[in-house]
Amino acid sequence: MKSSDAYQALEKCKLPADEAHSLPPAFYSSPELMKAEEMKIFRTGWVGVGRADRWPAPGDYSAMEIAGVPVIVVRGKGGRLNAFANSCRHRGARLLSGNGNCPGIRCPFHSWAYTLDGRLAGVPNMELAKNFNRDDYGLIEFHTAERAGFAFLCLADEAPDIDQWLGDFEALHRPWKLDELVSTRRREFEVECNWKPFLEVFKEYYNQPYVHPDTVNDIYNLPDEGDDTTGAYASQFGSTEGTGGLLQNSQEQPLPVMKSLEGRNRQGVRYSWVFPNMTFASGADAVWVYEIYPLEPGRSRVGMTACFTPETVAMADFEDRVKHYYRRLDDAIAEDIPALEDQQTGLASDYAQQGRFSPLLEANVAGFARWYAGQMTLTDKVSKL
Ligand code: FES
Q1: 106 lies in the same domain as 255
Q2: Domains identified in the chain, total number
Q3: Are residues 284 and 359 in the same domain?
Q4: What's the CATH number where 30 sits?
Q5: Are residues 148 and 175 in the same domain?
C-alpha cells in the first residue's frame, strides 16, 4: 500500500467501534510510516515512561530511546524528575547507558561534566576557547511530569498541558490510589513485533480463549462496555472470577484486596491504555504496567512492572506469595509473544488488509485506532514533516 493510500485508509479507523476498521497494515511495517509516526505521535505529545518510582533517589537514572531519540531520565537533587537528550554538548557522544545512580553526568569521551539538572559544570582544557560560556552548553532538556505515580515526558518544544492531555484519567483511577503503590519488580525485554500490537493484545479480551485457554481465560468474565473517557487514553473494566493477578489454577493465596476499593472494583480488573505507549491493569490486589518503545517497524522494547500497596508489600510472607503473581505475568506474556510475532509476519504482507473489531471485546483497541488516526492526520503536524 502506498503511504498516501495508507493515510486515506485511516479515515475508516475514526468511526465508532461497531463500524471502525483496524489500522492499515502498512502502519505496522513501513519504515517510512514509522518515521512519520515518530514525529506525529512520539515527538508531539506526552509519552509514558513507567512508574515514577523507577527513580526514587536523586541521581537515579535510565538511558532509553524514545522513537529514535536517545534520552536520559534522571531524578534531580531536589526530587524533580529531569529528562535530557543523551547527547553531549561538546561533540555529541552518548553520555549514559542502562540504569544506575550518578552524582552528576560525566561524558566518557572528553569528560565534560553536567549537574543532575543539566547545567555544564566542568570542562577540562577549554581555557583557550574564545567566547566560550558554560551557560550556553547545558544539556538539551525535555518536559517531564508525574501523575498518579506514573512518569511522562514530552519531546516537543512546547508540551501540551499534561492535565488536559490526560483528561479524566486521574479521576477514573482514583479508587486504586495509584500514586501510593510500590513497584516490586521490573523486567525489560525486546519483542519481534511493532509496538502497537503489543499494546493491542494486552487490551483486548477476544484472544483469551485461544491464546490463554489454560492460564487466565477462565478468570475473566465478559467485560463492561469501554468507558467514555476524556483525554488521551482508553479504559475498560471487567469483573473476574478470583483475581486476574494469578493463574486460574493458582488462586489459593491471593494477596489482600486494596482497602481503598469498593463495590465491583473489589472483584475485577480495569484495563487502561495511556496513549500512545503505556498500558496497565488495575486489579483488586495488584497493578501491572507495560511501556513499549518502538525500535524498528518490527521490533520493540518492553518494560513490565508489578505494583502493590505499601501494606501488602510489608506483609511478612509477601516475597513468597508475590512469586505467584510474577509467574502469572510471565506465563501470559510467554503465550502472547508467539501470537504477536505471527501477527507481525502477517501484517507485513503486501496482501494484509484492514479488518473489523469486535465492539465489546476490542473496545480499547478501537479507541486507540481512533486516537492514532486522528493524531496521524492532524494537518498542522503533517505540515511540520
Ligand atoms: S563528546 Fe562529550 S566531552 Fe567530548
Answers
A1: no
A2: 2
A3: yes
A4: 3.90.380.10
A5: no
Query: 136 C-alpha to center of ligand 1: Å?
Result: 15
Q: Could you tell me if 155 and 178 lie in one domain? A: no
Backbone angles phi, psi at 364, to 5 degrees: -70, -35
* CB-defined site of ligand 1, < 6 Å: 88, 90-93, 107, 109-112
pLDDT at 380: 55
Residues 110 and 234 in one domain: no
- Choosing from 84, 87, 96, 112 the residue with most ligand 1 atoms within 8 A of its CB, the one to mutate for a pocket test is 112
Of 135, 159, 183, at which residue does a domain stop? 159
Q: Are residues 200 and 58 in the same domain?
A: no
Write the pLDDT tens digit of every residue in 33-67: 999 999 999 999 999 999 999 999 999 999 999 98
CA atoms within 13 A on the CB side of 22: 17
pLDDT score recorded for residue 3? 74
* Radius of gyration, alpha carbons of the chain: 22
Distance CA 177, CA 171 (A): 10
Q: Are the CB atoms for 343 and 193 separated by under 8 Å?
A: yes
Nearest atom in ligand 1 to the alpha carbon of residue 111 is 3
Single pTM value for the model: 0.94
Q: At 142, which CATH number?
A: 2.102.10.10
- Last residue of some domain: 118, 135, 159? 159
Among protein residues, the one with the nearest Cα to ligand 1's atom 1 is: 91
% of residues, the chain, pLDDT over 70 = 98
| Residue from 84, 96, 110 to probe ligand 1 pocket by mutation (most atoms less than 8 Å from CB) | 110
Q: How far is the CA of 225 from the centre of ligand 1 (A)?
A: 54
The burial class, CB within 10 Å (0-12 / 13-18 / 19+), for 96 is: buried
Distance 121 CA to ligand 1 centre (A): 13
Domain assignment of residue 107, given as a range: 47-159
Cell 518536559 locates to 143
Determine which residue's CA is closest to atom 4 belonging to ligand 1.
110
Query: Which residues, listed in sequence order, are joined to residue 120 by a DSSP beta bridge?
Result: 114
Q: Which residues of the chain have pLDDT under 70?
A: 1, 380-385
Q: In angstroms, what is the span from residue 139 Cα to ligand 1's centroid?
A: 12
The helix (run of H) or strand (run of E) holding residue 100 is strand 99-101
Same domain, 246 and 173: yes
Q: Which atom of ligand 1 is nearest to the CA of 107?
A: 2
The per-residue pLDDT for range 3-32, each reduced to its tens digit, is 778 899 999 999 999 999 999 999 999 999
